[in-house]
Amino acid sequence: MKLQRIGIAVGSVLGVCALAWAQQMGATAALKPTTGNTTAGTVTFTQKGDKVSVTANVSGLSPGPHGFHIHEKGDCSAGDGMSAGGHFNPTGKPHGDPATADHHAGDMPQLVADARGKATLAADLSPVTIGAGANDIVGKAVIVHKDPDDFKTQPTGNSGARVACGVIKKS
Ligand code: CU
Ligand code: ZN
Predict the structure, then answer these.
(1) What is the value of pTM for the model shown?
(2) Which ligand sits nearest to residue 108's alpha carbon?
(3) Is residue 157 part of a domain?
(4) Residues of the domain holding 57
(5) How many domains are there within the chain?
(6) Could you confirm whether 87 is annotated as catalytic?
(7) Is 103 among the residues known to form the active site?
(8) Catalytic residue among 50, 66, 75, 104
């Protein structure tokens, strides 16, 4: 009887730990500059219920807004970042502002750099997940662009050259 109780107690503790671990699921991308650029930084993703929150700290930008997306291939090997492919779009939507209903799953709010070329961002993303399902961003890439995202031009937002790239890895 006593052993059974201990068994239940241990089981409960393990269950709570597993739940806490699932809620803490995260992923990180270390942004490295593409050829001829100096943009670098860290992007962190955390699963919170059915949303994923993103935080970014990026330096080496020109002042002002920059297109910022999750791209479909976790491949930053090309000097110009083109190996990362197009925007991550598992739901087959047009490119758009992530604050509106229709947008690529990989479309994120723009990075806005200050006069010293630094940008920070904190936002909630949907519909993406970390480590499960068709909308899983692990193994994809984060790209920072030279120019602003107009959130209209298809399928890119016309945000120009790719100045930094980082593969998203489970953390
Ligand atoms: Cu992009
Ligand atoms: Zn897009």
Answers:
(1) 0.87
(2) 2
(3) yes
(4) 26-170
(5) 1
(6) yes
(7) no
(8) 104
Q: Any residues with CB less than 8 A from the CB of 156 and at least 6 apart, and which?
A: 86, 87, 95
d(CA 35, CA 24): 35
Residue 144 CA to ligand 1 center (angstroms) comes to 6
Residue 142 CA, ligand 2 centroid: distance in Å: 12
User: Which position has the token pair 């068709």?
Assistant: 134
- Walk along the chain (171 residues) and give the pLDDT tens digit of each residue: 455 555 545 545 445 555 555 556 899 999 999 999 999 999 999 998 888 999 999 999 999 999 999 999 999 999 999 999 999 999 999 999 999 999 999 999 999 999 999 999 999 998 999 998 999 999 999 999 999 999 999 999 999 999 999 999 999
122: CATH: 2.60.40.200
Q: Say how far residue 2 (Cα) sits from the centre of its chain.
A: 48
